[in-house]
Amino acid sequence: MRVRIANAPVSYGIYRPDHPLPPDRLLAAFRDHGYRGTDSGPLGYLGEGEVLARRLARHGLSLAGGWADLRYGAEPAAFAADLRALDRTLDAFTAVPVDDALFAPRPTLACPADPERFAAPGTPYGPDRLPSDGPGRPDQEWEDFAADVQRAADRCRERGLEPVFHPHLGTVVETPEETRRLLSRTDVSLCLDTGHWWLAGGDPVAAVAEFGPRIRQVHLKDADRAVHARVRRAGGDLWAVVAAGGFPALGEGDLDLPAVLAALREADYGGWLVVEQDASPQDREADPDQSRIAAQQKANRALLHRLLHDPPPVGPHGTPSEPLLQERPHS
What we know:
TIM Barrel, 13 helices, eight-stranded parallel beta barrel, 41% helix, alpha/beta, single chain
């Protein structure tokens, strides 16, 4: 069992390539806290091509992957434009050296925000909207949607990278059932985001058991259903959920992190564990020097280290426990 731990710019509230936090400062913080890699964040923020490769090398970090949303099932011209944008992402990823194929960057395929879903995250669609499973719903929209996802996945593989699809709050693929319908129509791998999965009504431990080797990337994120429910009752959208603390630091929400890690071990998962703690623009403004955010990401890494390397000394049958996972050491 081999894993490496990464973090992501989203933990610092970085959603645009022109974010004022200097990328070298971000990467230095990740390095100093013991992370081995980073998600790309918005394409261009960390640079592209040789700039990206040199910047990562300077901090001793690898690239774990990064987001690419496409308008699947849209007008052909719109989807073709999105495929060209995906090519730019793939150009950036393939410019970064990889020392082990297991830890090559994963293009994270996802959907753009859907206005209805973004306004009411975690609320299932009715029978008149893709991707509903309501009675009598014709499958053609699903087939067109899935065919475009497959085209995007094939495009990634042609460039030597394994894509993962990311179910995400605020998009047309949120729930476990929607994810099952998509995976049944494609061979795309899955990015399991434990926080988004939980707030969409799923159980991350059960997801690992169900999807097993189909999971090729994991975003470790805690979440709080009580916060989510309170914000939704007040009519808040996804940004409001984030700002209210719907995704707290690891160990402060509902996620049973030891159980998730044990399930990954049972499934023989290998690859990146990307720590994410979605931060809102309000979080960033309230923490102008990012000291609180940095402390949380340091604590997230320390908690994972304890769980990976220092399990309870006695197992369920009175025998010494083994580490939950074997974190791949520095080369």
